[in-house]
Request: fold
Amino acid sequence: MRKAAKHTKRFLRRFWRGLREWCGDAAYESYLRSKASHGASCRILSQAEFYVEQLNRRYSRPNRCC
Amino acid sequence: MKRILSIFAWLIVAFLGASALGAIAIHRGEPLNAMWFVVAALGCYLVAFRLYSAFVAAKLLALDDTRATPAERHDDGRDFVPTNKWVLFGHHFAAIAGPGPLVGPTLAAQFGYLPGTIWLIAGAAFGGCVQDFVILFCSIRRDGKSLGQMAREEVSERGGFIAQLAVLAIMVILLAVIALVVVNALKSSPWATFTLAMTIPIAILLGLYLRFVRPGRVLEASIMGVALVIFVVVAGQWVADSPYWSHVFTLSGLSLTAAIVIYGYSASALPVWLLLAPRDYLSAFIKAGAIFSLAAGILLVRPQVLMPPLTRFIDGTGPVFAGKIFPFCFITIACGAVSGFHSLISSGTTPKMILREGHARLIGYGAMLLESFVGIMAMVAACAMTPGVYFAINSPPSIVGATSDAGAATISSWGYPLQAHTMTNLAHAVGEITLWNRAGGAPSLAVGMAQIFSNTLGGPRLLSIWYHFAIMFEALFILTVLDAGTRVGRFMVQELGGRIWAPLGRRGWMPGILLSSAVIVAMWGYFLYQGVIDPLGGINSLWPLFGIGNQLLAAVALVVATTILLKMGRLRWIWVTLAPTAALVLVTMTASYQKIFDPNPLIGFLSGANARAAQIAAGKIAAEKIVETNRLIFNLRLDAAVTAIFAGMVLVLVVEAIFQWYTILRRRGEAVLHESPYIATRWAKDFSGAPHDTVVGAAIGDD
Reply:
């Protein structure tokens, strides 16, 4: 029973993480992680700046299909 | 032992899929249960994925998991983001799944369920999935370059320019036709118009929240947004019941055209965070929810498919669109089986986020199989209603008659019995004024979905809510494609305009933004207007034009892929891309020829224009209708010219590519492959994406 609960908890945690990554909720965290692991040479954007910059880039190329 | 069990299990899956497909093909008489379609499709998809995609991955592409992907080499946390394969699968599917696989199969149901179902399954397995997969692979090997860039580098400079122009031209027709689907769905429907109109302030509210209150907190904002959208779907009923508000939101086709054009222009010119992006978030969640609900509904309700396997309209005299199965079933189904537009996604965001080359099989091939399954569900939903109702909703008044009695009599005379009061009762049950002549696929799909949903939850009492939920879902994500497409089209116009006058090419220059937005909106707006005033309903001429354009773009993508694979020396397996390329070129060229030159005025644009000109010359057109008829004549000739331009552009690219292939095969010149150099991956074999609570470096094996 405890094992099943543990598996369910792990599954739900993974699902939540996947959902956040899928919808873009975790995009800023990915950006910070990338900057941290690569040694940021330029200024790190604030969350609001990153949000607007990311949207401008995403919607300047085909990202939705027929 | 494990291997024997696995082979045995796959043999059972293959047997089930083949048996179900065989049953669908040879069954006559009593209506079939929808489960046959689900089993046939899933069985075939699983076998295609397990065997054919594995064969393509191993033999044709020779995917190499030891090779670092662009996401690893250029990881910047912005464009190049290493992403878990299942998350990227979701991303890619959300990007490729649009209204096409819902509308196309619904329209193609006029031939009966059989031709469309077979093409959805076979076309996806051997054409659409291969295209998406191979283009994704080519782009991964080129640092995520776009289709146009790859065409320029691997085929020729001219080929790249043509591909770029083809994308813009096809996008204009795409935007016009999907806008027309929305107009036909909302026309004279205060409930649906109110619901969709309310999604604009909801999106703006979300945009402000995400920009100023909780920047980037997409999930919580989307949950609030979805709740508000569901509320306005229900509130739409109160609007429809109120004489004053019902009058305010009852709009004609032309008024809706003006509203959609203004919306498209605003979404393109306004900051993207204010309207476009939050709408997209809403749309993504509702799209995912509606597709899963439809699948669950079909499995729970297991409706009977009432449409016959083949209708009398296989002879080309169909009321929804004219033309025979070959080539019109193929270009009408379009995105559910093969979609050229997917090549833009496969060579856009996805290759920059993929962790390993091996994941391209699941993401490129697998996501398209899922899209094809969406097409199968749309086919089931459309065919689950009685054929008479299907034809009443999708046929224009100029073919079935202007009154409900005349319409019922005409449709009954085709062998599909229909009483006028059946349509009145159905319209009343779904909360609409009328369901007659609502061409475009969206209303008939919404009726089909609503019947499945209401049988699952709520019964007939909730039929009207479910119908308007389905209409809102279709219109919401159609408008998401429309505004995102208009914005991308604006950038394309700016890029092309920048070649003539440099300031136009500057993305941040406001006059340039306003002018280029106006140009792109005027282009698709004109075709939309043309469709709205068309006495045959517009879908009749615009959907085939869109289908031709879309399939031609797929042919362009496959030509580019074939060229690259030949340069890589994969001649032995080149039929994998060459066969679908040849099939698509044959289908689209035949369709283009017939749409331009067919002597039947319902099929050929030129004969349609000539027939109307002859009517004017013979004095058969009333004086007050002459201006309108002349406009129709002009539009038909314009459609003929657009079709000829599409076909001409692709023929030039095909000839360029054949010349390249000849040079490569004859070894008359060195085949220069513009592939990124091999760099070994630094990631451990079991690395599956950067988890939130770990730093990437900790998960990377420094071997």
User: Anything to note?
Assistant: The CA atoms of residues 239 and 245 of chain B lie 5 Å apart. Chain B touches chain A through 66 residues (CB under 8 Å).
